[in-house]
Amino acid sequence: MRLSHGLWGGQVLTSRVLRAALVWWLLAFGLAGAALAHKGSDAYLDVRQLQPAPQAGPSEAVPSRPEVPALRLSLSVALKDLDQVVAIDANGDARITWGEVRVATPALLAQLDRSARLDVAEKPDALTPTDADCVLRWQSDGLEQRSDGVYFRAAATVRCAGASSLHLQYRLFREQDAGHRLLVAGRMDGDDLLATISPQQDAAVQLRHATVRRAATGQWQTLRDYFLLGVEHLLHGYDHLAFLLALVLPLQLRLRPFSRVGHAAQPEPLMDNGWALLRTVTAFTLGHSITLVLATLGWTQADAGWVEPVIALSVAMTAALNLRPQPWLRVEALALVFGLVHGYGFAGLLVEAAAPDGLLPWALAGFNLGVEAGQLLAVAAWVLAVQWVVGRPWYQRVVVRGGSVLLIGLSMAWFWQRLA
């Protein structure tokens, strides 16, 4: 059986190649499901101090003890993530209804009571309340729609009188999802608060400290935390990694021996096609940095309903061009244009984190730098991984063409899942 037209651009396809292509596609759809199942998740916590209302009426002969400002925390967690620890989808039809959420609410609140709590490190005198007064008792506060789905919102209000040090312990999804992160934002004691926490960490989020002013440390802590968040976001973003791979697949990235470079009469590049790689990665960086900054600052916005499917399509289109190159289309231009779309995908996390204005520039800078660092790590890992096969005669046929078919399968699976 022979076909005169096929995926390889006019070359004859044998039944053997067709079977190989089918295997690539089946593998792609399997990987797509696995990637989505293990993708990291995010939850959001807003922390606010509520000032006590002024007391009306005549002044008392004996002055009353000043009322302690209440601390209000509002926690939002995706229903699809909570279904891992509480069986919300009772009938297993992969669709969570309001009735199922209402039935599961007591179990959800009990889970939050165990997983998110306050620690009072210091009580300066015996007149202050006990630790029991700082216990978070979460109450349902409704549902909210975010870019990646419906979230369950819970709220708790406490008064921790005399507590000079407060720390938030967060252990939700500790056993279920190593990529889960809690993004904390708000304002405490006159200072902006912005932090991230992983359930895997033993450390807690410092809400109040007796001697350390958050304003003095918050900027650098935010820069560090969001740098790490940017690295993780890129390395856990399978669609972004797939797009990078589609861009660099056709480049013959071969490292030159150091001895050869050092003793050459004329300086030689350390890697074949190194400049092509630099131009491509720089164009992608420029594109997603522009929309990341604009969207985070609120100067432009895009609906995730079209951004996420288009990101998936960008992988498919780039991989398809590896199979049928178009001489008039430069890969740098493609990277720049699609980078603008990917930037909106990166910005979604920062926008929903609702960083305070005073710390937003530091969060934006740290996150963007982290994304670039993760991008460089991914590209460097690919370059090193292909060194032992890049010179083989079958590299173009198996790695470039076969890998492109795999990426098309992955991206189309993502595309239909995101439309659904």
Our measurement of the CA-to-CA distance between the termini, rounded to an integer number of angstroms, reads: 37 Å
Strand content: 15-25%
Please summarize the sheet with the most strands.
6 strands, mixed
What order do the helices and strands follow? EEHEEHHEEEEEEEHHHHHHHH
* Broad shape: elongated
Across the major sheet, the strand order is 6-7-4-3-9-10
Rg, Å, rounded: 26 Å
Count of DSSP-assigned helices: 11
* Unreliable residue stretches: 1-39, 59-66, 123-130, 210-216
How many domains, as an integer?
A: 2
Question: Could you explain how this protein is built, in words?
Answer:
The structure is a single chain. With 420 residues, the chain is of the alpha+beta class. It folds into two domains: 2-37 and 235-260 and 267-419, no CATH class; 44-51 and 69-212, no CATH class. The chain contains eleven helices and eleven strands. The protein has a six-stranded mixed β-sheet with strand order 6-7-4-3-9-10. Strands 5-8-11 form a three-stranded antiparallel β-sheet. A hairpin with a 2-residue loop joins strand 6 (139-146) and strand 7 (149-158). Helix 1 crosses helix 11 and helix 5 (238-248) packs across helix 10. The two termini are 37 Å apart.
